[in-house]
Amino acid sequence: MTLNRSKQTTRSRRGRLGALAAATLAAAVVSSVAVNTAGAEESPDEGAEAAQAKVDNPYEGAQVYVNPTWSANAAAEPGGEAIADQPTGVWLDRTSAIEGNDSPTTGSMGLRDHLDEAVAQGADVIQIVIYNLPGRDCAALASNGELGPDDIEAYKSDYIDEIVAIQGDAAYADLRIVNVIEIDSLPNLITNVSPRETATDNCDEMKANGNYEDGVSYAVAELGALPNTYNYIDAGHHGWIGWGDTNEQYDNFHASAELFGSLIGQNGMTADHVHGFISNTANYSVLEEPYWAVDENVGGQPLNQNPELPWVDWNDFNNEKDFTEAFREELVSNGFNDDIGMLIDTSRNGWGGDYRPTGPSSSDDPVTFVDESRIDQRFQKGNWCNQAGAGLGERPQASPEAWIDAYVWIKPPGESDGASEEIPNDEGKGFDEMCDPDYEGNIRNGNNPSGARDDMPISGHWSSEQFQELLENAYPPL
Ligand code: BGC
After folding, report:
1. Closest residue to atom 9 of ligand 1, CA basis
2. Phi, psi for residue 462 in degrees, rounded to 5
3. Is the pLDDT of residue 150 over 80?
């Protein structure tokens, strides 16, 4: 599955947007930086004693673990050496990945193998993706997982508890373990549920049974209680929950932050268990649109209040930087600590190459202006699967902005988001038409073509062709 992020949705068409709040948004939240936050609760494990207090930004000055499995795949590609030493996320995408399951998706290394190897590399930070919720990826099919909608007890005891036991081992006390918590889960409970027309049966079911909230709060509380872990909860991306002040019916922005805040108190989860949030995981949304502002006036009205402009469609944002800055503030006002930091997955949001514009369009027609000015080349922001034309984005780096702890590569470049056609498999992966290049879309992507590459394997499996295109269209260029 991929990340399916996008699954987005929603577009609103009415709007009283008002001056959105450019000002408010911009109001910078300044950040971070205080000293630590995260709670230093004592772990029951032996690791507690050796551990240091949590630092404000685990990435600052840190050497980040390079996953040898991904690195070998990258290095085997022509030109791949240029990035084979970059840190990428280690996905625990099913229970057997904890032990190591020799699958083409995750390789043969289990969690302990990765942690041991991180210690051997002398790394300070390792990035683990917690991704196995019951009824996973409810708005898409390409990354449905092994656990059924009601399998919450198995999630807690066979998956989370096992990971906690390993991460809490004293042997790893000196590593800062970043846990990226459950991609593509909670925002679905806002955007893809009834009575919205974007609802799916699976998301309605997950909302009704409460198992996303139960699972995420349990994972955050249990993992966050260890002395050297750093939880970053997945927060979608601007093209999914960037609709805020436009109208009440489609307010994804405030509603999502409120939903995250409502987890505090569940399963013993506290604000101190949350170090921050991550946006754009495995997605393609840009860091910034250099040639146009979302509230710029073109053709007589602001772009974000133009009913004839599908690319913007009343979204309050056109990029991840502005979105994360504003969403961070919104999370703080919903109970999270005021020094939380944001991560942005920049693995595939570069959009370089021949089609990248080099300046703003001179057109005064709003649609032409945006289409000629934007660097994000998707048909629509709800497109999430193997986007043709994408390139690597910013290389992983710490503290690029005051409110951003790091740009990270959580989705390992070259790994598929989903199969282009149905491929039988034993990983619980379905076939999602959003990965079929010929698919003409559905309400969740505004009935646009999928924009997906052809001939792609099931999610998580390697695609040389996609990897090569990402290298070629990298921005900044390699
Ligand atoms: C897949 C996982 C995979 C991850 C990283 C997800 O879309 O469902 O199996 O590990 O991507 O490539």
Report:
1. 460
2. -80, 140
3. yes
Name the residue with the closest Cα to ligand 1, atom 11.
Answer: 460
What pLDDT is recorded for position 103?
85
Atom of ligand 1 nearest to the CA of 94: 9
Q: What is the mean pLDDT of residues 298-315?
A: 93
Peptide bond into 44 cis (omega under 30): no
Beta bridge partners, 406, equal 343, 398
Nearest to 179 by CA among 118, 247, 229: 229
Answer whether 36's CB lies under 8 Å from 273's CB: no
Instruction: Please indicate whether residue 184 is annotated as part of the active site.
Output: yes
Strand residues in 296-403 grouped as ranges (E): 297-298, 301-302, 341-345, 397-401
Q: What's the mean pLDDT when you consider all of the chain?
A: 89
Q: Determine whether domain 19-472 maps to CATH 3.90.550.10.
A: no
pLDDT at residue 29 tops 60: no
At 168-197, the pLDDT tens digits run 999 999 999 999 999 999 999 999 999 999
Is 214 labeled as catalytic in the residue annotation? no
Write down the domain spans for the chain: 19-472
pTM above 0.85, yes or no: yes
Q: Pull the structure tokens for residue 282.
A: 């495995």
Give the Cα separation of 156 and 4 in Å (integer). 23
Sign of CA pseudo-dihedral 112, 117, 118, 119: positive
Q: Which residues line ligand 1 (CB under 6 A)?
A: 1-3, 91, 93, 105-106, 143, 411-412, 415, 417, 459-460
8-state DSSP, 55? P
